[in-house]
Amino acid sequence: MPASELASIAAYWNESADAFDDEADHGLRDPHVNAAWAQRLTDWLPDSPADVLDLGCGTGSLTLLMAQQGHRPAGVDLSPRMIELATRKLSSAGFAVPFMVGDAGDPPAAVGGPFDAIVVRHLVWTLPAPAEALARWLSLLRPGGRLVLVEGRWQTSAEAGTYTPGSPKLPWFGGVTAARLIETLERLADVVDTEHLTDPTLWGRAIQDERYVVIARPKR
């Protein structure tokens, strides 16, 4: 994306950062919500220690769970304030995790790799070219690595939209159905697992919209 568009998006998330963890599934402050996500990561990720990239890491709540489970995580987020909070959160817990400011849809070269797993939660709706991003993420995986996509569909309008002035049109604005994401992924990867995430413990409340995980591996 052009720098001007990235700047407007970064500003949007900078403004959201300080209240971001107030959402139960963002801050994971409730021990039941925290435990539910920890168990899911155990199910979805390779045995530890694994090299895991957390894209769109926000304030680092999932990154912290990965570190606590013995993995070697790294995080990328476009918002400098989110990265500041994530770094503080991990440091306070005794973990030195590399975080960097960058476009999660097109991760900076400094992120390194390859990785055993890449975790992406509620990010693809923010991307102007999601299929291209999926291809880039898959290219960062080791053979046999896995792409873990935790996504959902929160709005029913089929129209593309933007979420901040100056940002590009987003084809998956409001989220994407599992069926559409899988259809896109199957052109690029082998989908090995999918599950609807209906457990209210994950979200701190009952939900009515579609939320799910899709796990894929690069095509051999």
Descriptors for this entry?
220 residues; seven-stranded mixed beta sheet; 34% helix
Task: Explain briefly what this protein structure is.
By secondary structure, the protein is an alpha/beta fold. It has helices at residues 3-20, 24-27, 31-44, 61-68, 80-92, 130-139, 178-185, and strands at 51-55, 72-77, 99-101, 115-121, 141-153, 189-196, 210-218.
Write the layout of secondary structure elements.
Layout: H1 3-20, H2 24-27, H3 31-44, E1 51-55, H4 61-68, E2 72-77, H5 80-92, E3 99-101, E4 115-121, H6 130-139, E5 141-153, H7 178-185, E6 189-196, E7 210-218
Parallel strand pairs: 1-2, 1-4, 2-3, 4-5
Antiparallel strand pairs: 5-7, 6-7
Helix pairs in contact: 1-5
What would you note in describing this structure?
This protein is α/β, with parallel strands linked by helices and 220 residues long. It has a seven-stranded mixed beta sheet with strand order 3-2-1-4-5-7-6, sandwiched between helices. The model has no long low-confidence stretch (mean pLDDT 93). 34% of the residues lie in helices and 23% in strands.
Oligomer: single chain
Low-confidence runs (pLDDT<50, min 5 residues)?
none
Report the strand count.
7
Average of the residue pLDDT scores: 93
Largest sheet, described in full? 7 strands, mixed
